[in-house]
Amino acid sequence: MAKSIEDFLVELDTNSKLMEAYKSDPVATAKKYGLSSEEVKIIADQDWDELTKRFDDTSKTIRVISY
């Protein structure tokens, strides 16, 4: 099963080594994590609006994304 960008962001919150790698090179870290090329492009383009849409589910806890 492929990992999703949602899984990646949750993992960033709990894995300090992944966060350090992300801070150093976000695109390479996302690729290494196994995200699809479409999801890597979201990170490369810093398309936070698209990312917010993926987390927009009122039945879940609200998440603040500030990467």
Structure description:
- InterPro entries: LigA_sf.
- The chain is built from 5 helices and no strands.
- The mean pLDDT is 86.
- The chain has a domain at 17-50.
- Helix 1 (5-14) packs across helix 2, helix 2 (16-24) packs across helix 3 and helix 3 (26-33) packs antiparallel against helix 4.
- The longest helix has 10 residues, at 5-14.
- With 67 residues, it is an all-alpha fold.
The number of helices is: 5
Kindly state the mean pLDDT as a whole number?
86
Task: Describe the global form.
Answer: globular
First-residue to last-residue Cα separation:
25 Å
- Classify the helix fraction into a percent range: 55-70%
The biggest beta sheet reads: none
Count the E strands. Answer: 0
**Elements, N to C (H/E):** HHHHH
Query: Rounded to an integer, what's the Rg over CA atoms?
Result: 12 Å
**Low-confidence blocks of residues:** none
**How large a portion of the residues is in β-strands, by DSSP E?**
under 5%
Based on secondary structure, the structural category is: mainly alpha
A few lines on this structure:
The protein is an all-alpha fold and 67 residues long. The chain has helices at residues 5-14, 16-24, 26-33, 37-44, 48-55. It has a domain at 17-50.
